[in-house]
Design brief:
73% of the residues lie in helices and 0% in strands. It is mainly α. The protein is globular. Residues 23-210, 218-420 form the Na+/H+ antiporter NhaC-like C-terminal domain. The chain crosses the membrane at residues 9-28, 34-51, 72-89, 109-137, 149-172, 192-214, 235-259, 279-299, 404-422. Belongs to the NhaC Na(+)/H(+) (TC 2.A.35) antiporter family.
C-alpha cells in the first residue's frame, strides 16, 4: 500500500465548508442564511473533484468508506434512537415533569449549573457525550423556557457536562483510544487527567451560577409525576450501571411508550408515530454526519491529515515543546475530522513516539490527547455535540459558542499543565 504524501491543499474542502457555513453567517449576521447541508454538499463536491490522478469511481468508493466508518455508524444509530426517545418522552409528559421537579427543588440560580453537573455524571456513566446530550437537551430546553434563561446557555452547560465525561469516563471511546495508543493504564490516566481538568469544572460551575444569579423570571413550579419521569430515571440508572448507550436509549423508548399507553397519553398508533417523528427530526443531522465522514476520508486519502502531522512536528526541541506539539497535533486533526476518537487514533502513534523521545510520562501524553481533542470537539460548530444540541434546541450551533465555558477552560488547564509541568510523576519501575 502506497504511503500518502502530505498535501496542504487536501484541506481545501474543510476550508470551503467552514467558510460557507461560518463565513456567510458572520457576513450576513444570520447563520441560517446558508443551509448547513448545502455548505457540506459543496465541500464534499470539492473533495470529489480534487486528485485527478484517481478515478471518480474510486473517489466515490473512498467517500462511501468514510461515510460508513463504524464509529460514525454507531453515532448515527445513537442520533436515531436519541431523536425517537426525545420525542416519545416529550409526548408522554416526561420532560414537563422533570422540568417541574428541577424547578421545585433547585434554586433558580443553580438550575444551569445543575444541568452541567448532571451532564457530567451521566456522561461519566455512559461514556458518550452524544448520548448525554440526547438525554438532557430536551430538559435543558424546558428549563430555559420556564425560567426565561437563554436556551443557548443551557445547551452550552449540557455540552460542557457531556465533554467532562467524554474526557474521563472509563468506557468512553476517546479515553480507551488515548490509553491504548499510549500504552498506559486506564486508572493511571484517569488520575492524571482528573486533576488537570478539575479546576475547569469548578470554575465552570461558579461562572454558571454567577451569570444566572437573579436574572431569571420568577417561576411557580407546577405538579410533577414520578411515574412520567421513569423514562429519564431508567436511562440514568442504566447508564450508571454501564449499559451500552444504544440499549439505554432503546429501553427508554420502550419504557416511555408503555407508560404513555398505560396512562392514556398514547395509543399504540400514536406511540409509533412519535418514534417516526423523532427519527425524522434527526434526519438532517444524520445526513450531515455521513457527508462529513465521507469528506474527511477523502481529505485523509489526499494527504490532508499527513500535512497536519508533519507541520505540527517540525520544530520540537524540548519536553515542554513536545507536549505542546501533542496538544496541537490532536487539536488540528480534530478540527479536520470533527471526531475526537478518530483524531486520537490518527495522532496517537506519533504522540507515543514523541513521548518516548522526550521522556514524557505516558499518563501525561494520554491525558493531553484526550483533553485537547475533547476541548476542540466541544467547540466546533460542525461537531456532533454542538449540532445535536442545536437540533434539539432549534437554534444555530454558533449561538452556543459564547457559552461553551468548559471546553475552553479544559484547554486552558491543559496549557497551564504543560507550562508548569503538572502533574509531576514518580517514575514507575520498569
Amino acid at each position: 500500500m502506497m504511503k500518502t504524501k502530505a498535501n496542504g491543499w487536501a484541506l481545501l474542502p474543510l476550508v470551503i465548508f467552514i467558510g460557507l457555513f461560518v463565513g456567510s453567517g458572520i457576513i450576513t449576521g444570520d447563520f441560517y442564511k446558508m443551509p448547513i447541508l448545502v455548505a457540506i454538499l459543496v465541500a464534499a463536491a470539492a473533495a470529489l473533484i480534487m486528485n485527478r490522478k484517481e478515478s471518480f469511481t474510486s473517489k466515490v468508493e473512498s467517500f462511501s468508506k468514510g461515510a460508513g466508518h463504524p464509529d460514525l455508524m454507531i453515532m448515527v444509530f445513537i442520533f436515531i434512537l436519541a431523536g425517537a426517545f426525545s420525542e416519545v418522552a416529550k409526548g408522554m409528559g416526561a420532560v414537563e415533569s422533570t422540568v417541574n421537579l428541577a424547578l421545585s427543588f433547585l434554586p433558580q440560580s443553580l438550575l444551569i449549573a445543575g444541568l452541567f453537573i448532571i451532564g457530567a455524571f451521566i456522561s461519566l456513566a455512559m461514556g458518550t457525550s452524544t448520548g448525554t446530550i440526547a438525554a438532557l437537551a430536551p430538559i435543558g430546553v424546558g428549563i430555559s423556557t420556564e425560567a426565561d434563561i437563554s436556551v443557548a446557555l443551557a445547551m452550552g452547560a449540557i455540552i460542557g457536562g457531556a465533554m467532562f465525561g467524554d474526557n474521563l469516563s472509563f468506557i468512553s471511546d476517546t479515553t480507551i483510544a488515548a490509553v491504548r495508543t499510549q500504552q498506559t493504564e486506564m486508572r493511571d490516566k484517569f488520575k492524571a487527567n482528573f486533576f488537570i481538568v478539575l479546576p475547569a469544572a469548578i470554575i465552570t460551575c461558579i461562572v454558571l451560577v454567577v451569570i444566572t444569579l437573579g436574572g431569571q423570571a420568577p417561576v411557580t413550579p407546577e405538579a410533577y409525576s414520578w411515574v412520567k419521569m421513569l423514562p429519564y430515571i431508567g436511562v440514568l440508572a442504566a447508564a450508571l450501571l454501564g449499559v451500552n448507550v444504544i440499549a439505554v436509549l432503546a429501553g427508554g423508548i420502550i419504557l416511555g411508550g408503555v407508560i404513555g399507553m398505560a396512562d392514556g397519553s398514547y395509543t399504540l398508533t400514536a406511540f409509533l408515530q412519535k418514534i417516526t417523528d423523532g427519527i425524522m427530526g434527526m434526519a438532517e443531522l444524520v445526513i450531515l454526519s455521513l457527508l462529513i465522514g465521507g469528506m474527511v476520508e477523502l481529505i485523509k486519502r489526499n494527504g490532508g491529515i499527513h500535512f497536519i502531522l508533519e507541520t505540527m512536528t517540525k520544530r520540537i526541541s524540548s519536553k515542554r515543546g513536545a507536549e505542546f506539539a501533542i496538544a496541537g497535533l490532536v487539536s488540528s486533526t480534530n478540527l479536520a475530522t470533527a471526531n475526537n476518537t478518530i483524531s486520537i487514533i490518527a495522532t496517537g502513534p506519533l504522540a507515543k513516539d514523541m513521548a518516548d523521545k522526550y521522556e514524557i510520562d505516558k499518563r501525561k501524553s494520554a491525558s493531553l490527547l484526550d483533553i485537547f481533542s475533547c476541548s476542540i470537539q466541544g467547540l466546533i460548530p460542525y461537531g456532533a455535540q454542538m449540532l445535536s444540541a442545536a437540533e434539539f434546541a432549534s437554534i444555530s450551533p454558533t449561538s452556543i459558542l459564547p457559552y461553551s465555558f468548559y471546553p475552553v477552560l479544559i484547554a486552558l488547564c491543559g496549557i497551564v499543565a504543560i507550562l508548569i509541568q503538572f502533574p509531576r510523576f514518580k517514575r514507575k519501575a520498569a
